[in-house]
Amino acid sequence: MIPILDLKQQYLSLQAPIEAALRDVMLNGHFILGPNVKAFEAEIGTFLGSPHAIGVASGTDALHLALRALDIGPGDEVITTPMTFVATTEAIGIVGASPVFVDIEPDTFNLNIEAVAKAITPRTKAIMPVHLYGQVADMDALMALATAHNLAVIEDCAQSMGATFRGRQSGTIGTIGCYSFFPSKNLGAYGDGGLVATADPELAARIRSLRAHGGRVKYHHEELGLNSRLDEMQAAILRIKLPHLAAWNEARRAVAKRYRDGFAHVPEVTLPAERDYGVPVYHQFTVRVADRDAVRAALDAAGVSTMVYYPVPLHMQKVHANLGHKAGDFPHTEKAVLAVLSLPMFPELSLSDQDTVIAAVTRAVRVAV
Ligand SMILES: Cc1ncc(COP(=O)(O)O)c(C=O)c1O
C-alpha cells in the first residue's frame, strides 16, 4: 500500500540526533519552558522573519490564545471559511465569539475575499483565513479589507508552515500567525505542539502570559490563562527538524510537479490552482474528481491510500447547528467536499510510487466516470 504519509522514513533519516537530543533533555531535567523551547522560538522566529514566536501546546491553542490576546469574545464575530478543520471555529467558539462563514474560491479552496467583504458587520472583530493544503490565501486583498475596516487578521497556518506570499512567510502578514506541529504537519513534532507568531510586542507578551496561567511573574496571576506550553522534548525534536524544512517543502513541490505533469492529459482530474503571488508547500495535494467515493475505493483496491479533507463542511456540522445554516448556503464549499481527494504526499515519496499513483488515479477516474 502506498501510504498518504510516511513519517517513519523521516524519523530514520534523523534518528541519531533526535534520540541524542531527547536523552539530553532527560539528563538535563528541565522539562517545561527550558532551553530548547527558548532556542527553538528564536530559531523559528528567524526562519519566519517574525520578531516574536511563542511555543504553545497545539495549533488549536495557538488560535485560542490569539483570539484571547486580541480580546475577542462574546458578541464578537470572526469571519472564516467552512472548508477547514474544526479547530479553526472551535477556537472562535471557545472564547465565546461567533464564527461567520463565507464561501471559498473553487480553484484554490481558500477564502473568497469578495465574500468576506460582504460579511463584515459592526460586530466583526477579525478575519481568520486558513491557508488550506499549504497555499496562502490572497493576503493583499484581505489585508486591504482588514485595514479599511480596522479588523485583526489571524492567519491559520496549521497547513502552511514555510509557504510564502510575495516572499513573506505565511503567518507574518496578518496581525497574528498560528501554526501547528501536529505530527503529520510539514514541520511535525512527535506529539502535539503549536506556535504563535506576531510582530506586536504587546500581543506577544500577553500570549506568553496567557500560555502560562495568565501571569508574567511566577505565582502572580493577572487574568485567567491556560496551561499551554510547547513541551521541551517536542522543542528539542523541532530544533533538529527545522533546518530540513525548506528542503522537505521543496521535495513536496517536486512531487506536486510530477503529479501535475502526470495528470496534464487527464481531464477527469481537476488540479488545484497555484497562484503566482506565492509559493505553496503542498501539505496536501488535493484534486477534484467526479464520483469521488468510487474513485477512492478503486484506488484503495489498487494499493493507493487517499484522504478526504474534509467530508463535512463546518456549517453543516452539529457543533455549529446554532448558527442555523442549511445545505446550499455555501455552494462552492458544498460542491468541493463531494469531489476533493488528497493523494499521497510527503518529501520521501519515491518516483516509482509517484508514477504508480498517477497510473492508478488515471485508471480509476476512467473506470468510475
Ligand atoms: C487548518 C487547521 N487548523 C488548526 C489545526 C489544529 O492544529 P492542532 O491539531 O495542532 O491543534 C489543524 C490541524 O490539526 C488544521 O489543519
List keywords for this structure.
single chain, Aspartate Aminotransferase, domain 2, 369 residues, binds pyridoxal-5'-phosphate, 2 domains, 3-stranded antiparallel beta sheet, Aspartate Aminotransferase, domain 1, 13% strand, 40% helix
Q: How far apart, in Å, are the first and last alpha carbons?
A: 24 Å
**Shape by Cα distribution:** globular
Name of the CATH first level of the largest domain = Alpha Beta
Q: Quickly count the domains.
A: 2
CATH architectural group of the largest domain: 3-Layer(aba) Sandwich
List the helices and strands and how they pair.
Elements: H1 7-13, H2 15-28, H3 35-48, E1 52-56, H4 59-69, E2 77-80, H5 87-94, E3 98-101, H6 113-119, E4 124-128, H7 139-149, E5 152-156, E6 164-165, E7 168-169, E8 176-180, E9 194-198, H8 201-210, H9 232-241, H10 245-263, E10 278-279, E11 285-288, H11 292-301, H12 331-339, E12 340-343, H13 351-368
Parallel strand pairs: 2-3, 2-4, 4-5, 5-8
Antiparallel strand pairs: 1-9, 6-7, 6-10, 8-9, 11-12
Helix pairs in contact: 2-9, 3-9, 4-5, 4-8, 10-13, 11-13
The chain binds pyridoxal-5'-phosphate (PLP).
